[in-house]
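Sequence in, structure out.
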Amino acid sequence: MEKKVKHKEEAFLQHPVLFIAVLVLGFVLMDPFEIGPVGGIEFRPVKHDIAPYKEVMGGWPRDNESQLGNGKLEFVDEVFGPESLEFDSFGRGPYTGLADGRVVRWMGEGIGWETFAIVTSNWSEKVCARGVDSTTSKQWKHEKWCGRPLGLRFNKDSGDLYIADAYYGLLVVGPRGGLATPLATHVDGKPILFANDLDIHKNGSIFFTDTSRKYNRVRLLSRYHFYILLEGETTGRILRYDPPTKTTHAIPSHSFCPSKSIFDTSVRFGLMKYWLEGPRAGTKELVAHLPGFPDNVRMNENGQFWVAIDCCRTQAQEILVHNPWMRSLYFRLPIKMKILARIMGMKMFTMISLFDENGRIVKVLEDRKGVVMKLVSEVREVEGKLWIGTVAHNHIATLSYP
């Protein structure tokens, strides 16, 4: 019996190609040196049903003139990762949250940018202020200490500024600025891991997003949000804070922009509407398929919605979305993310799209060559101008519209 087993082992070793293939497969599955893009994390891809690639991309209008690339770069190396942009009731601004933990506002050419608010008393210039390096890995280990204000919204009646901070949850600061006051850091006794964006309902309730109940931003920083995108995990949620009762609870769905309804952006390449009021309250519907990864949604004065999109989907990507086991193997390969993305045909660029309330496309603007920015977070339309924010670059972009 021993001779027979030994003979089989020797026969296996005599096929070096098979032997090497088994070793490589074992290495990929185990990734002991955590070389692959998802090395060192509990990566469990989820299957999603998404609209067919040809259906979405075949019917999506393209900006062949790449008009967004004609935008103007503003405040270069003066603001660091300005994701969300806001203006107060007096028209002052923009206000924006920075990667160094501050909320700043523009005071005009004579004064420039001034610090308006901070989200934690931990903040100090010595520890947190790293200038243009704030959007690089040099800031990552300090973010959780210094804060990372993302979504901003003013209550136009009170002048209060509400802040969604990735580490400190939902906060508010008065019209004069200063140290923000925490409003919501936990839900049902569990911490809010990744507060991202928010909006204010007409009744005063604050709706804000918790991007993930599995990952906080500090765990995602080395690849930013790629863990969530690659895994397709769907633990993100909308939270509602009610000022009169000072309570926070979750509502079904996953993002925001409330008036009578909420528009939802998610990793499934879709724009969802969640109804808050009326006969359809508590229900949701898909109103538009998207060609890429959406971020913030902002409404203009006409009741239309600008959606920031990092474009675009590929056919290879669709196969991976439908087959989680393929994603699990593919992203454990000891190859850099940039190369793996290139193999899938992905060449990311910025797109912003305007939708009406029913999800019909009104306008599409692209920046295919990354002239203005390669990663877009938000679009605000103010008095004939688009203000475009980004979590990754050290500038703001503007473009006349229409």
